[in-house]
Specification:
- The structure holds 2 protein chains of 2 kinds.
- By secondary structure, chain A is mainly alpha-helical.
- Chain A has 5 helices and 2 strands; from the N terminus they run H-H-H-H-E-E-H.
- Chain A starts with a helix and ends with a helix.
- Chain B is globular.
- Classes of the chains: A mainly alpha, B alpha+beta.
C-alpha cells in the first residue's frame, strides 16, 4: 500500500508537482502528451511518473491502445485530514480560548 | 466509449465483500457520504438513486452488477436544472483483491460536453473515497465537511 511517506516524497519535487499540475489542467494524458513542451527528457518524465504512480498520486487507465495518466487526489485528501484539518481545529480552539480570556479580563 | 474524465484509485485494507456492502448499503453509505443513501436492488436494468435528507439528488440505472467485483450505473444529477437536462454519465466501480488489500478503481465518464457537474464530481469523489477507506479501516469515516469542497454549481441548501 502506498504509505504516506511515499506521497510526501513524491510531492517533494518541483518537476513532479508540475506534472500533477498539467494533469489537473487536462486529465487523462498519454506519455507523449505529457512530454510536450516540457524541458524534461522523455526518460525523466517516465521516471517521475513511476514515482507518482507508486505513491498513487497518478493512476493509469488503458483506453484502446493508449495508456492514459490521471491525477488521483485521494491520497492528498487523506493528508489533508491527517495533517491539516487536525491542526486547524487546534488553532481555532486556541483562538476561541484566547478570545474568551481577553473578554473576561475586560469585564 | 470516450475516454474517462476521471479515474480514482484507493487501496483499502478490507475484503471485496465488505467493500461491496459499503458501496451498496445505505446504512454504510450514510456514514461516509454526508448522509447520502444509495438506493437500488442492484440488478441490471433496475433504477438507482441517491437520496439525501429525504430528497432524491441523483438518479440512474444499473448497467452492470457482478458482486463483489464490478458495479456500474448511469448517473444524472437532478437538483440542478441544467444538470438534469444533460444526458446521464456513467460511474463504474471495480474491486480487485491484492492480498490484504482491495484496489478500488472508480471511473466516471461519458459526461455531456461542458457538463455543469464536472467541478462537483472532481471534488466530491476523492473526499467520498477517502472517507470510505477510513471507515472500512478504522471504523470511523473521515468526513471532510461538504462546505470545505467549495463546489460552486450545485448547492442550493440541500446539504447540511
Amino acid at each position: 500500500m502506498p504509505a504516506m511517506d511515499e506521497v510526501f516524497k513524491a510531492l517533494a519535487d518541483a518537476s513532479r508537482r508540475s506534472l500533477l499540475d498539467r494533469l489537473h489542467v487536462r486529465n487523462g494524458q498519454t506519455l507523449n502528451d505529457l512530454c510536450e513542451g516540457l524541458a524534461m527528457t522523455r526518460q525523466a518524465v517516465t521516471k517521475h511518473l513511476a514515482i507518482l504512480t507508486a505513491a498513487n498520486l497518478v493512476t493509469t487507465f488503458k483506453h484502446g491502445r493508449e495508456k492514459l495518466h490521471y491525477l488521483n487526489p485521494v491520497p492528498i485528501h487523506q493528508i489533508g485530514e491527517r495533517w491539516i484539518r487536525k491542526f486547524e481545529r487546534g488553532k481555532l480552539t486556541a483562538l476561541s480560548e484566547l478570545k474568551r480570556q481577553l473578554e473576561q479580563r475586560d469585564e | 466509449m470516450s475516454k474517462p474524465e476521471f479515474v480514482y484509485v484507493t487501496y483499502i485494507e478490507t475484503t471485496p465483500q465488505k467493500l461491496w456492502e459499503a458501496l451498496t448499503n445505505s446504512d454504510f453509505s450514510k456514514r461516509y457520504w454526508w448522509g447520502t443513501s444509495v438506493v437500488s436492488d442492484w440488478k441490471v436494468g433496475s433504477p438507482f438513486s441517491l437520496v439525501l435528507n429525504g430528497k432524491t439528488t441523483d438518479v440512474g440505472e444499473i448497467l452492470e452488477a457482478d458482486p463483489p467485483r464490478l458495479l456500474s450505473y448511469s448517473f444524472r444529477h437532478i437538483l440542478n436544472e441544467a444538470a438534469s437536462n444533460e444526458r446521464p454519465s456513467r460511474v463504474t466501480f471495480e474491486l480487485e483483491p491484492h492480498g490484504k488489500l482491495v484496489k478500488l478503481t472508480l471511473t466516471h465518464q461519458d459526461f455531456a460536453e461542458t457538463s455543469v457537474i464536472l467541478d462537483g464530481i472532481s471534488k466530491g469523489w476523492p473526499a467520498i473515497m477517502s472517507s470510505l477507506k477510513s471507515m472500512l479501516e478504522t471504523g470511523q469515516p473521515l468526513i471532510i465537511p461538504f462546505d470545505a469542497l467549495s463546489i460552486e454549481e450545485l448547492e442550493e441548501g440541500t446539504r447540511s
